[in-house]
Amino acid sequence: MSPYCASRFQTIRRHTHEVRVGSVGVGGTHPVRIQSMTTSDTQDIAATVQQSIALAEVGCEIVRITAPNVAAARCLRDIRAQLAAAGFGHVPIVADIHFLPSAAMEAVEHVEKIRVNPGNYADKKKFAVREYSDSDYDAELARLHEAFSPLVIRCKELGRSMRIGTNHGSLSDRIMNRYGDTPLGMVESALEFLRIAASHSYDQIILSMKASNPKVMIQAYRLLVTRMNEEQMTYPLHLGVTEAGDGEDGRIKSAIGIGSLLLDGLGDTIRVSLTEDSVYEIPVARAIADKAMSLWSLGAGLQTPPPDQIDPYHFNRRPTQTLALAPKVKIGPEHAPGVVTRVTLSALANFKSQIPLPKSPDTPHEGLLVPVNTCADLSFAAASVSEWSAPGRFLVLDLAPSLTVAELESTISNLLPAVLLREFTAADSPALAAFATLARRHGHTLAIAATADDIAALAPTLVALGDAALLFTLTARLSTLNSSAHPLGRTRALAAALHALGSRAPLWIRNTSATAIKPDGSFLSRLLDASFLTGGLLCDGLGDLISIETEADPVRATTLAYNVLQGAGARSSKTEFVACPSCGRTLFDLQTTTQRIRAQTGHLKGVKLAIMGCIVNGPGEMADADFGYVGGAPGKINLYVGKTCVQYNLPQAEADARLIALIKEHGKWVDPAPAAV
Ligand code: SF4
Fold it and tell me: Which of 167, 235, 165, 237 is nearest to 202 (CA)?
């Protein structure tokens, strides 16, 4: 068993105890619960009731409402009553508390669940740097016990549940100074609160470890579960990527973080945080949950492939050899993953008219993948490719298994260096040797599509061949294979099989319809599949080349590929936005502001820009952003460089220009470049 999940190769749900959130059970045998948050001012009771109903009507099962002060917490009583009167009494409310135990003590009287942030429930957040001796630290814990216990006791008396919601970037100074702003610090922060709750025999707690960076978030949840397993704790998990932003990027980041954990069997309730109206979060969350739950098993038929070799708590890329696919395209551990786009043969011949230019020079067409079913197809590709050929591009030929080496020999010798992609089964050793020899003789690379079992059977041939000019990918014939493993698990198993072989050949992550997870044909489904599979593997350090294959819309597929790389932190092609979803504390219109700032600054490859609705949580939760645009007061903006506020209370009308000036002052500005092939 892995330290944090029953299997990294198939989805076996983690055992948790049930937590009751009013009438909604979380964990245990319950399905993954969907939740979201209102964005209205909580004291605007009518608006908050209306938003809560709108959320419930589209399938939100638990509604969170901010309680920034005691007055707002008091309003929860009327909100609760009006929801019940409108026929939504079954929808539990969660009060979101930061900083004010007094607001929590008021809210607990009215709602089914209280969310506390252990970074600020009983601690001031000053980013102070100081040494804590063991006795200082123990004194702080005693103070925490005193501050937190009344809420635990009242929750127990009233039958309320609680979420201990830790966020990367908003840890207490005590934790930051001892553990740093790390997954370990996040876990320790939650454990301090859990121990206090346990001292009162209270276990109706759900835990979360959110971060805007999916890698950090994944590592924190894994570490938390490992620590809970060590202490026989079975608390359910609430999953979310915080400040994920909006649009395709927000959906991708959320799906990478939430999806890869759900595929490992972790997670009992989820929120997809988008900088959009909250109702748009629900279909995304529903689709993520449904995909993951369709893979749940009770452990029957558990496969036992060799353990994969990654450290699940620290990111390291799989060590591979470097492979040049074109004069200016190299793949391997020192290079960002390359991108392959699937097109038709005719599109290759007329690529200038049929494959529109990418929107940005940072998202080029690098590899074009074309199907080759006959020798005539190959001749056609060879004749067509010269016009497309360039030092930053390569061609991939998807060879039908019926084509033989003898048939290909003469035509392939006329081809510029390319990648030959072919599937090999366990019985294909002679063919594998022949194709590898053919590829090497003519300066091509052979991409071997196989499963972990195939690789084990082909091992003698592969060892004899060595890694030169080889790369590997998962076979696309998964639908004919009898196993409950999902593509992410199968690719992990493939990487483990290569490790067992001693191979350092690069790995290509292909999203084909055959490797997708229960595709329903919609773009959202495709996006989620790509985020689960490609994003999840990239966060494991696997993947040197990626493709999302949809011949019908190659440009959109390529854009999606670059966006998944960006979401997984594997390759930057534009500005990284960290934008909070907004809530009742928000001091400006986050959606329009985010869109406006993105229109002006979205081309700054490698720059991380945070847009946060309030100074209460914004500066902490924008984590490692380079620049921050944060609501300081109504109509006023504070600008940050890192965590340091450098300009206070700017009129909002001036703030965009001042932000750009700040980026320029720090040497991070470039003028937008015209789109090019
Ligand atoms: S940062 Fe945004 S979501 Fe978080 S509390 Fe402030 S306004 Fe609300």
Answer: 235
